[in-house]
Amino acid sequence: MHLAHYLTLLQTAERDLASALRAVAEAHHEEPAVQDTARLTAGWADEHAERLQAFVDRYAPLAPDAPEELHVDLFRGPRTGGLAYLRDLHDLVLQATTCDVSWTLVGQAAKGARDEELTAAVRACDGETGRTLAWLTTLLKTSATQALVVA
What CATH number does residue 119 fall under? Predict the structure, then answer.
């Protein structure tokens, strides 16, 4: 059963998202739309990663060896320069999308395994990840004109 590998992938993606949100909030502190919400959603991502640990522990004994290069870094740190904010938001959207899709896949596996506890965790966490993704997508859209046309 490979569920443990995907749970670990999701846990790492959530931790990476939390770290990236904080880094972008700090690097672009002059953007008022970022500060508070980035910190709030980073906290959600931290909670998601923490909540996943029990399931990683539960399914790890059933997992075969992990496949090579299961995890990929999507955010390499905040940028500077004219397009920095837009590119950082773009990376955050990609990171949040990775989490969102992974929650969907883990949710399907939880249903298949008839794991009600994991299904409930997916339902709670996936909703918050969806809200994070919607917020980031809105920021990306509202920033695009300024960054790409007006600048």
Answer: 1.20.1260.10
45-50 contacts: CB < 8 A, separation 24 or more?
45/14, 45/15, 45/17, 45/18, 45/21, 45/99, 45/129, 45/132, 46/14, 46/15, 46/18, 47/125, 48/11, 48/14, 48/99, 48/125, 48/128, 48/129, 49/11, 49/12, 49/14, 49/15, 49/18
Global pTM value: 0.87
Is the per-residue pLDDT at 68 higher than 60?
no
Q: Does residue 130 fall inside a structural domain?
A: yes
Number of domains composing the chain: 1
Name residue 69's amino acid. E
Q: Indicate whether 144 belongs to any domain.
A: yes
Residue with tokens 């950082």: 88
Question: For residue range 113-141, what is the model confidence (pLDDT) as tens digits?
Answer: 999 999 999 999 999 999 999 999 999 99
| Per-residue pLDDT at 150 exceeds 60 | yes
